[in-house]
Design a protein that fits this description.
By secondary structure, the chain is of the alpha+beta class. It folds into two domains: 87 residues, Arc Repressor Mutant, subunit A (Orthogonal Bundle); 69 residues, Arc Repressor Mutant, subunit A, CATH 1.10.10. Helix content is 49%, strand content 18%. β3 and β4 form a beta hairpin. The longest helix is centred in the last third of the chain and has 15 residues. The chain is globular.
Length: 170
């Protein structure tokens, strides 16, 4: 895995990184996966608390881990295993301080206002409005703020210029 560098060209991609390294459970999962390939069950055995499935979802959204199928013993079912993809980091972007402050706030805050904003955004998505720009205008925030929230919330994602709700069972 030597030499794999995570190049961040969009400041929104900082959100999963900051979330990962600001949460002890996510960091522990990342550290385990940085050492070797592991299944979700093997990770769960190593950690005594925490939602490993949610950790893996956030790490996948940040493109911090890769996955493959592990060949099973005869008569067993194949299982997915994961490992960390990168061991170096490089930032290559420019943004204004307003956007940067929004992204850092979204990444490290547990503010109740963020949860209420996510609920409003989910309501918009359920009503058929998936445009990032339209949602940002409606709630008087920047499109970067909306994209940052989508990167933080495991069941939201950015697709092109819109938001999508992901299947919560993944």
């Amino acid at each position: 895995m030597t030499g794999h560098i995570r190049i961040v060209n969009d400041p929104v991609d900082l959100v999963p990184l900051l979330i990962t390294f600001n949460n002890s459970c996510y960091k522990q999962v990342y550290d385990l996966l940085n050492r070797s390939w592991m299944t979700e069950e093997e990770i769960d055995e190593q950690l005594k608390d925490g939602d490993v499935g949610q950790c893996i979802t956030i790490l996948k959204k940040g493109n911090l881990i890769e996955e493959q199928w592990r060949m099973p013993e005869p008569g067993q079912r194949p299982v997915r295993e994961f490992r960390a993809t990168y061991n170096k980091f490089r930032a290559n972007f420019q943004c204004n301080f307003a956007d940067l402050s929004d992204l850092i706030y979204i990444s490290v805050s547990n503010d109740e206002n963020l949860r209420m904003m996510v609920e409003k955004i989910e309501g918009e998505l359920e009503n058929g409005n998936s445009s990032i720009n339209d949602i940002a205008r409606k709630f008087n925030v920047s499109p970067v703020f909306i994209k940052g929230l989508a990167k933080r919330i495991p069941h939201l994602d950015v697709k092109g210029q819109g938001l999508v709700l992901l299947d919560r069972s993944l």
